[in-house]
Amino acid sequence: MGYKYKATMYYSDDETNEFLKEKAAKPNGKKSASHYLYSLVTRERENAASVELNQEEVDVVRIYPEYTRSRRIEVSGLISFTALPAFLLESKSTQKRLDHKNLMKEIDDKVHQHLSSKDNNPSNYFNHDGSFLVVIKTDVTCYYNSTISEVGYCEGNFLANCSVVHVTQSEWVRFGGKYDFENIQYIKFRDLSRLKVRKGMGFCQLAEINPLDTVGAFFIPVRTTSKDFPLDKFSTPLLKGVDINFNKDRVRLKPMNDTQKKKYFG
Predict the structure, then answer these.
(1) Assign residue 243 a region: left if phi > 0, alpha if psi is -120 to 50, beta otherwise?
(2) Strand partners, 145
(3) For the chain, does the N or the C end have fewer beta carbons within 10 angstroms?
(4) CB 123 within 8 A of CB 41
């Protein structure tokens, strides 16, 4: 049959020539470089179409108005725990990181205790209709003192600022069942423009009062489709937020100086 269009390929190196001869071989023993080149063009067109289809399914992230319906609480107090003996640890940096992880665990426990105390009992917030609490530690400060001995001991004084979101069925419906309160996450502002999400998806920033951190914030993911209210799924508050890997404007874990030791521990 005749062909309406044709294209000619020019090349001069022997390696390309040998490669093309090998690839152009057909099962019947004949060779057709033009057929091989045409198959490459066809494959490239299919790949381009696939990329275009995928691009239709994703979009730049959408930013929704700030969520201002959270309640701010402060939790503070003394914490302590028995650390691993110094001789079991590989280095001072290992000991420091382990102490920081244990400090944060103790702080988490104190936040839970605060919420379950008589004055802050979750039943005061839960309306017995399946509503639940999401507690986000937005920033933590802790000054601590470690004793280096065969039996290590670490104690400290902390302050945790938290945002509490009370998710009722009416709150869920208010946002069309699209606000994913269960998966609130920290995102750096510079990363928002790089995120690729399914078309229509976005994030709603959790409002904070004068945060020191100007690099990022906590965001509620916003789905493209609604989801049923998670009735009776969460019997205890969901605790989220900062950990020891956050920047110094969010997490400050520092050894006590002598004045602080005397003030808190005599």
Answers:
(1) beta
(2) 155
(3) N
(4) no
Nearest to 167 by CA among 151, 181, 185: 181
In the chain, where the domains are located:
18-57, 62-265
Tens-place pLDDT, residues 85-95:
655 656 778 77
Token pair recorded at residue 206: 């959790």
Cβ contact 188:247 at 8 Å: no
CB contact at 8 A, 145 and 116: no
Residue 111: CB atoms within 10 Å? 21
User: If 0-12 CB within 10 Å is exposed, 13-18 middle and 19+ buried, where does residue 163 land?
Assistant: buried
What global pTM score does this model have? Answer: 0.73
pLDDT tens digits for range 37-88: 777 777 777 666 555 445 545 567 889 999 999 999 999 999 988 876 655 6
Specify whether the CB–CB gap between 199 and 59 falls below 8 A.
yes
Which residues are within 8 A (CB) of 70 and not within 5 positions of it... i.e. 6 or more apart? 136, 163, 164, 165, 206, 207
Return d(Cα 20, Cα 34) in angstroms, integer.
10
